[in-house]
Design a protein that fits this description.
It is built from six helices and no strands. By secondary structure, it is mainly alpha-helical. The protein has one domain. α1 (4-26) packs antiparallel against α3, α3 crosses α4 (72-93) and α4 (72-93) runs antiparallel to α5 (97-116). The longest helix has 23 residues, at 4-26. It is globular and about 50 Å long.
């Protein structure tokens, strides 16, 4: 049974992904202009026709799975590269504490949930090799 802290972390991580991912497709609200240093980076990503729809689609699916509490290891796998990108973007282009708070909080919550579901990743780090040769 999940603890209230894990449930809160799951919902607090899933909601921003779900809402901001949906905002890309539905346009609930406008997004602030990016810092001038990030314009070339974001322009390069936007020049492809597929990067933002794929990333935002992963955010919607992963965020919904986390909020609903379904297939949480799958949601974390989908969102791990996105979280790394968000934290890296904040590190490179953030201007102050207000620019760091949400990305680093999301990174911390993501790490907490990855640790909580560490048994799902056991096969990635340990292998049983048959020694029948």
């Amino acid at each position: 049974m999940p603890t209230p802290v894990v449930t809160l972390a799951r919902v607090l991580l899933g909601l921003p992904y779900l809402v901001l991912g949906l905002n890309h497709f539905v346009k609930f609200f406008g997004m602030p202009a990016p810092p001038s240093a990030a314009e070339a980076f974001l322009g390069g990503l936007a020049s492809t026709s597929w990067v933002f729809p794929v990333v935002k689609g992963a955010e919607v699916i992963g965020g919904a799975l986390l909020v609903l509490g379904w297939a949480q290891p799958l949601a974390l796998v989908l969102l791990t590269p996105v979280t790394i990108g968000i934290v890296g973007y904040a590190f490179d282009f953030g201007g102050g504490l207000k620019d760091y708070a949400l990305p680093y909080a999301m990174g911390g919550l993501h790490l907490l949930l990855l640790i909580r579901h560490r048994s799902a990743w056991a096969g990635l780090f340990f292998s049983e090799v048959d020694e029948e040769e």
